[in-house]
Amino acid sequence: MYSDNILGFETIEKNLKAMAFKRLIYSFISILAILFLLSSGLTIAEENNAGSFQRGLSKFFDYPVDLFKEAFESGWRWYAYVFKYLPDLISTINMAFFSTLFGAIFALLLSLFASKNLIKNQYIVTFSRRTMDILRSFPELVIAMIFLYLMGKSELPAVIAIVIHTAGALGKLFSEAIENADNKPIEGLQSCGASWWQRVRFAVIPQVIPLFISYTLLRLEINVRASTILGFVGAGGIGEALSAVIQFRYGDEIIAIMFLLVITIISLDYFSRFLRGRLIGDNK
Amino acid sequence: MEQVLNQNVIDAVDLKHKKHIRILIITGFMFMVYLIGSIIHFDLPNLAKKWNKDRASMFMLDIYAHKDHIKMNWKDPQKIDVRFEGGHRHVYKDDPTWLIRNKNNQSTIVNFDNGGQFVFFPNRVEMRNFPNINEPFIFKLNKNGKPYVDGYVGKESMLPSWMRATENKVEVRPSLYERLQVYGSKVEVHRYELGWKYFWFDFDSPLVGKGFLDAISLMFNEDRVDPKISNFNLVVNEFLENEIWHHNTVLFAMVETLLMAILGTLIASMVGLPLAFLAAYNVTPLSSIRFFLRRLFDMLRGIDMLIWSLIFLRAFGPGLFTGIFAIAFTDTGTLGKLMSEAIENTDKKDKEGIQSTGANKVLQHRFGIIPQILPIFISQSLYYLESNTRAAVIIGAMGAGGIGLHFLGALMTGNDFENVAYMAILVLVAVMCIDTMSAKLRRLLIGIEIKK
After folding, report:
1. Residues of chain B with pLDDT > 90: what percent?
2. Which CATH superfamily does the domain covering B247-446 fall into?
3. Same domain, yes or no: A228 and A111
4. Same structural domain, A18 and A118
């Protein structure tokens, strides 16, 4: 059936063995590299850490146990703390929501200029992409700290920082979604003489809007965490409350705030997964 | 008949359209209400007022310029010293060329590039020859030891806008690059120049004034600057031990932050993958183990990285372990959940094919499942490495150490803005490097980019 002069079984076997050997060598090298990284990194960590690893490990449960003990001792009063910090929590969530909204709007504008299938000018596309890269690369905290220093303590610096980061992060995802959109509706509209804006409005946006909303919801979840952390460095909300009670060592109140945070994050997770499932259709 | 049907279709479409419009209007209205409320809540209209203009301009100026402080005490007018950025240890041994000491009339002249001069006398300070400023100004102390502008006592409102005289201080700022402050006890002049001076070598170093390229060429030069050590070592040592820019501390902090991110992600993926197998229904038949692991993932993920880092901070103290474990714990939860879902989504047929050859369970998973999930696993791990690089900076600032803490420290001192900018740029470069590298690695390892 097969003529022998194409590739003999022996040659195939030889090639296969060579390939398997090569792959084995590669895996071996990468495993060695990972082990080396791990051991040397942990050695550096052990040398430069304030406390040693073993002592820390034995003390790991001390702090949570202390906190829980205090919360348990305060009894019924503990529930009042949960409600006491509810307004702070709402303020943090609102901060995240507002900045996600604004960030998404900026991201949408940026992404329209960063998609090859909408903008033919290569320079504009590259410029918008690099802009988004830079916006995305700064951790929120770095921007927020600088603005906090320049504007005094309020929620606004945190909002600005999250908007900047969100615009970059969502912009990239948005522009990828636009570039993956089906080109036929765009061409169809173009053939009837639709303007650039009409093509975007009626051919691109309807295709990508479920994906955009899904990405934005994911981002909202991340931003709630981020705005808590920014509160911790002085931007108000539940983060600031947490940092205050930690300094005063009110164990019961710390537990109350942590409880609120964990509940919020878990419920947001479920809520956004539910909404995304409905939007995109695959309820995973 | 056909006409009626068409009319019905049109009506239905019309109705749907109207409903859409109604929903759109209602959401739009709610959106506007929320927007206006939030704008009031966050005080956006007062954005300009909140903006601390002086601080912002100082900040910007400090980022691209450096300054020398020239200070004279009224009690000891002969002793005028010049310090770089006003640092205690950064005193110039030899006078710079723009400072002229005149022995005859005991005056000292500070020259500026635009021709302007501040002249120190034992009992007064003169300001002269500045462009667009016709009359010279003279600053003195009155009998009570308070500073005043000669000829303007009681007429402070007549002073130009760039000069401010209060009871204890006269502040003069003809442009961004010159500044004079007269106090009851001392006079201080700030002289700004563009650039990051002493970035490569500080001025105690034998290599002061050498640029980057000079230093590189010196490294491979045979003639030793210092006969005791080789040029290569000398250049590296002098660069790292720069007392103004603290390269060794900053660069080591950057390495620490990167180690936190890399080790944290590594541990998370090494622990997360086996747990993910145990939490997948097509691998583990015991539902109790699965339930337990699922809840464990939820807990690890739900307790935010912030809270984990606080807990670890108490146990391990400030340092790398706190960062590593905070990242590892959170991401074990995230990766475990993601990977267990990926394992459950794998195609059964591969595994059955392996099973039909008589392979045991372990081999079935090794060859039936792992090849299918490996690209997702690598892609997700790299994605988390990227986001953890940023997270490590943030955890660091909250107490775990690394570049985040140094950044916060430099910002809090309120005058080392060039160091703040330096660290911000360093973080930007590191994050971009990690992003590019992980994109390259992803393409190398799995060929195509997996969409999230």
Report:
1. 12
2. MetI-like (1.10.3720.10)
3. yes
4. no
Closest of A283, A148, A170 to residue A220, by C-alpha: A170
A268 and A212 housed in the same domain: yes
* Per-residue pLDDT tens over the stretch A202-217: 888 888 888 888 889 8
pLDDT band at B449 (very low <50, low <70, confident <90, very high): very low
- Token look-up 């309120």 returns B414
- Domain holding A96, by residue range, is 77-280
> How many domains, chain A?
2
Interface of B with A in 314-333 (CB under 8 A): 314-321, 324
Residues A194 and A266 in one domain: yes
CA-nearest of A92, A93, A90, A107 to A216 is A107
Mutate to test the interface with B, among A36, A178, A215, A229 (most CBs of B within 10 A): A229
Question: How many Cβ atoms are within 10 Å of B341's Cβ, its own excluded?
Answer: 14
Q: What is the pLDDT of residues A166-200, one digit of tens each?
A: 999 999 999 988 988 888 898 899 899 888 888 88
In whole angstroms, give the CA distance from residue B299 to residue B303: 6
Shared-domain flag, residues A25 and A163: no
Q: What is the pLDDT of residue B273?
A: 92
- CB of B409 less than 8 A from some CB of A: no
Same domain, A45 and A108: no
**Within-domain flag for A69:** no
The number of helices, as runs of H, and strands, as runs of E, in chain A is: 13, 0
In chain A, the residue whose alpha carbon lies closest to the alpha carbon of B407 is A142
In a domain, residue A166? The reply is: yes
Whole-angstrom distance, CA of residue B431 vs CA of residue B266: 17
B196: tokens are: 């990051």
A113 lies in the same domain as A229: yes
Q: Is A21 in the same domain as A134?
A: no
| d(C-alpha B384, C-alpha B201), whole Å | 37
* pLDDT band (50, 70, 90) for residue B37: confident
- Residue B83, exposed/middle/buried by CB under 10 A (0-12, 13-18, 19+)? middle
Can you name the residues that pair with B182 across neighbouring β-strands?
B170, B187
Which one is predicted more confidently, A17 or B247?
A17
Q: B90: distance to nearest CA of chain A, Å?
A: 27
Strand B186-194 with B137-141, pairing? unpaired
Residues near B77 by Cβ (< 8 Å), separated by ≥ 6? B106, B120, B121, B122, B123
